[in-house]
Amino acid sequence: MVGVLTVALLIGISSTAPSGSTATQTATVSAAGLPYFGLLPAVAYDANRRQVVLFNNRGETWLWAKNRWTQAHPTASPSGRIGAAAAWDPLMGAVLLVGGQSYAEETVLNDTWTWNGSTWREIGPRTSAPPGGFMLAMTYDADLEAMVLVASDIPFGTPIRLWTWDGAAWHQRNAAGGPVSPVAVVAFDPGTETVLAVAARCSASYCVSETWRWNGAGWQASRPAHEPGFGFSSMTLVHDPVSGRLVLLTITPTTAGPAPTETWTWNGQDWSWRQTIGRENAVAVTAEGLHGMVVAFEDVARDFKTQRIDSWEWTGDSWQPTSAGSASP
Questions:
Q1: 50 exposure class (CB count in 10 Å sphere: 0-12, 13-18, 19+)
Q2: pLDDT of 86-120, one tens digit each?
Q3: What is each CA distance from 201 to 173, 174, 181, 182, 329, in whole angstroms?
Q4: Does the residue 1 lie in any domain?
Q5: I need a surface site. Which of 69, 105, 133, 134 has the fewest CB within 10 A?
Q6: Whole-model pTM?
């Protein structure tokens, strides 16, 4: 059975025409019309062109706009990978993709790429780039005007590494006094003008969530009254422009079957449980924008012959189903 995959993204709904080049000239509808999500895909929202960009472990680039998936065929592309970090960089006007692990060779990657709507371009020196791997979380800090990347290590409990991107190169920052590995997700919280991070404190048998803030100079533990379940790579954290809160998708492990995907919101001080959708596996995604809505996708295929992707929109308080697509090759 194909596992369920849920991703949440900030989708711009501005009524003005998108700026920059579009990908329609380089995109074609696949035979099935739906993408292969694969394992730990990199997903972000291109705010200029109003489209979701998905890059999977096959090295394919897929675009979602106006309730339709198309496959792009860029002239240059990163190699297929799992666990790469991806987020929208408003200063560059491009989706930034960083690192990951080679799916074919199982080697770590520390390259940096941008998506301009039609093709990928490698940028920045690899010699000063963050370490490769698939335990990465990234978001754009609007107060700092820089991309912030947190790299976790194994074994758990080891110090994290913190990097910022200035549009041309990566710079390592002091991460002392902050959370330890693993950090699953990060997102910029406009209400507090800080980067919120969900990390884990792990024992020999389980992990519990810890919520932290980074203000550009140092870390502070939030210690909310409620903490969501910690889902490792099965977590998504994005800002909801409708409610002004952060929306978190996570799973709570269970021995009674597939783990449900839970929705939590952050009001700047505490987490609140909202709703359960799907069955398992949320993917960490970050995206930026000023206006829009949060959308979730779920790969609900039951075998490798039939594809089906359901989608929901977040109303600011609950999920509402929007459409379902299915096709057979």
A1: buried
A2: 999 999 999 999 999 998 788 999 999 999 999 99
A3: 22, 21, 8, 8, 44
A4: no
A5: 105
A6: 0.86
